[in-house]
Design goal:
The protein is about 30% helix and about 35% strand. It has 4 helices and 9 strands, in the order βαααββββββββα.
């Protein structure tokens, strides 16, 4: 939510969280064939334990890093945290941001979690309105936020102060 406090030395700070638990569940579903293959082996319980541990590890890592995105924007820059533990975390100072804009992220561009390429960073868990930052280096950072316009307003207010 964005809070508008008026007066000298006061700034708006935007905080928002987007969660996508169905995506975490759907990402673990492809592990079912692995479990079935492990259970159908002629070995003892060890044949089932290894695939089960792999599936549990994948599910846990996905739940801890790709289930939600928390974003804070204000005079200290833009901070993006993932999952319930807030890790990994990315922070972009206002001096690094050349341009901020609201874009409509189509479903086929959603990276579902944290994705990094040499020119782009995606911190997305759903389609729809998103915040896109263009850094002074030319890199773009796309972040899923619940209210992209409020986040943009907090960034513009902080940069103009």
């Amino acid at each position: 939510m964005a809070s508008a406090l008026t007066g000298r030395g006061r700034y708006s700070i935007y905080t928002g969280r987007v969660t996508n638990w169905p995506l975490v569940v759907l990402s673990v579903v492809p592990m079912a064939p692995l479990l079935v293959m492990g259970g159908s082996s002629n070995e003892s319980w060890r044949g089932f334990a290894v695939p089960l541990l792999v599936a549990a590890a994948v599910g846990l890592v996905n739940a801890l890093t790709g289930s939600s995105v928390r974003t804070t924007a204000g005079p200290n820059g833009i901070s993006v945290r993932f999952g319930p533990l807030g890790w990994p975390r990315c922070t972009y100072g206002l001096e690094r941001v050349e341009r901020a804009e609201v874009i409509d992220l189509p479903p086929w561009y959603v990276a579902f979690g944290f994705w990094w390429t040499p020119r782009r960073t995606y911190c997305t868990v759903r389609s729809g309105p998103a915040l896109r930052l263009t850094l002074r280096t030319g890199r773009t950072v796309t972040v899923t936020v619940p209210d992209a316009r409020a986040a943009l307003a907090a960034i513009h207010e902080a940069k103009s102060a």
